[in-house]
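Per reviewer request, we include the raw input and output of the structure prediction for the construct analysed in the revised manuscript.
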Amino acid sequence: MGIEAESLARVIGARVNQERKGRNWTLDQLAEFAGVSRRMLVNVEKGSVNPSVGTLLRLSDALGVGLPALVEPPELREVKFTRSGAGAALWSGPAGGRGVLVAGTESPDVVELWDWTLAPGERHDSEAHSDGTRELLHVQEGAITIEVGGDNYDLNVGDAISFCGDVDHAYVNSSDNVARFSMAVFEPGVGASRRVAKA
């Protein structure tokens, strides 16, 4: 991991640990609730791994907080401000692509704003998110293909798409040029199933 990734991993680890202990949950309990291995959870809390977006989503849902809450320091103000380049880079592609979470709201109805870059030939496969998740995507540079539930949608500069994110999906750059897009993700009722189960 680079310095930036190590710093982010430590922030995430501290927040997961804080949220887990605030609920008086053991490592085993959170691992079970989130559907991740205990070993992975230990490594996340130590800040020694850069967990996948899928792992972070499972942890944030189990804890009943939005993904932004795991990657941002807590703020007491109503306004959250992210400077250019200060977003949380949660995905790095093999050819230099990046998925950066630049802003987000808190649970229970979480909205995330992402800035994505895919280098030529890169793809990002995403597991199905929680029920009711919607994604909105707008291409700012290049061309990409969105794969959703077995169907492919080709988008060029200026094109936009909205789709259900509660099925497996992927973002693909099959072109010879860099592609860049912004994406908003709406996840309603984050952690609601865990709150109901614990009530």
